[in-house]
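note to self: dont lose this again. the chain is below, predicted strucutre after it. 593 aa total, dont forget to put it in the shared folder this time
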Amino acid sequence: MSLNVPGLIVMAIFYLLILGTGIWASMRSKKVERKCTGSDGMEITLLAGRNINLLVGIFTLTATWVGGGFILGIAEAVYNPTLGLVWALMPVPYVLTFFLGGFFFAKPMRENKYVTMMDPFQIKYGNVLSSLLIFPALIADVLWVARTLVSLGGTMSVILDLPYVYSICISSVVAIIYTLLGGLYSVAYTDVIQLILIFLSLWICVPFMMTNPNSMDITLTAFNETFQAPWVGKLELRDAGKWIDDFMVLALGGLAYQAFYQRILSASSYTQAQVTCFASSAFCLVLGVPSVLVGAVAASTDWNLTSYGSPTPYERGQAGSILPIALQYLTPSYVSIIGIGAVAAAVMSSMDSALLSSASMFSSNIYKNIIRNQASDREMQWVIRTSVVVCGLAGTALTFLDNSVLVFWLVGVDMSYTIMFPQLVCVLFFKVGVSNGYGASVGYLLALVLRILSGEPLINLPPVIHFPGFRKDAEGVMTQFFPFRTTIMLTSLCSILVASGVTSVIFNKGLLSERWDVFQIKRSQAKVTALTRLKKEESKKDCVEAKEAVVNKQLLDTSCICLLVQLSKSRQKFMDICFFLCLFRFCGSVLTL
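---
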């Protein structure tokens, strides 16, 4: 197969369009920064000045979740004979993610005007412990970058016959450049273009696949074994624990991603943030349908009749690249080029979000709050840019270690779910007396140790702990079928609360001297109480000012009404005088006659 020149030209046009949009958005962000003279430049870069447009916010939140891993991972799961549609979980758990985020997590984040999701950790636990908690979040973002690039590299190498290395490096450079230029403004506005391209490109390609003569009707193969096992798949009772575990990881793990809160905090109000979440959940469901159909068609195809030949993609170990393979061999060449545009758009939309997410946490929570408190806006801009480049290079380097999309996807979300999610719940919804630094440390270490001892077949980590139901899966790999990750998450959550309660009693009752209180529980309680009181006073002050403004407006309106009444009365008197004068003149004229 020779290099696909028309496809390269189309991809070059696509990259120029995205880059041009990013440059335009960066110019817009600079105009906003000049207008908002009282605003923090870093806040404008990371949160778009907390005034992002509603429609743009919906598009950028949806595009962040609908990435390369999303569309390729769903197709891979549906096509895989050992999994099927019932294991293609991504779209449905995301609905739960957005609804929980909109109803519960967005409010405390917005009310306290945080910049990143790690801000409450620093306020409550201090810099040392919060720095340790940042690392899992940063690693998850780097893995996010890696998984999106893997999906694009595999697609380009199949359809364009472009070397894997070149595909990844070009995409990485373009995403890094426009993220550097305009921060969240560039990311958000390019996401609008990318999401439109994803939707149009995939729906253009699906009809061509479904009408391919080498593929059977997917309704006939949904529950009947033809070329392989039915693509709907099956869920047996003994596998229910693993299914529940995967569902919960995808649903709750996303709530511990900085990229989610970056969109929530950039909204102009809490109501707008909620609308953004609810609308994005519907978009995720719709955008998952084409990938399901691609996987179903691939499972219903007699690959021996195509130019791909035998054995099947699954037998060759290429199930992770089933979407680009289906585009290449089941659609005309010009259609497959359109399809690769969808994959490229999905990859770029997720990668830029991960880049900015990691850069925001490092620059705001580590550099600004710990290393250099007095850093100027200009200095912080350079720190953000450096962080973007470092995260991009680290994620790009990881893509050469493994070429499975699901590996990076699941490992990244796994860390967020088992380690970060219980920490975030405690720091947002429990007071210092119930959740403190000691509990957070115990929960962090316990979750990390238990997760390592539980093993992970995706990275060839052998398990030490064998939970109930531990056995070989359909592919012969020893797997934990018990919901062990949810168990670890709940264990971590309970350990945080128990350890926090015990240490609070010890130090508050004077059972141990305060000089042994490393995390200074009493001082932390006083600090949080003072901050809460200050915020309440500020909110009361704002309410009083708002009421005064309303009263002043009402008085002004009343004064205006009184003035109008007086004017109307004066006008009425004037009209009466004019009327009598006219009547007097008329009577005088009659008498004269």
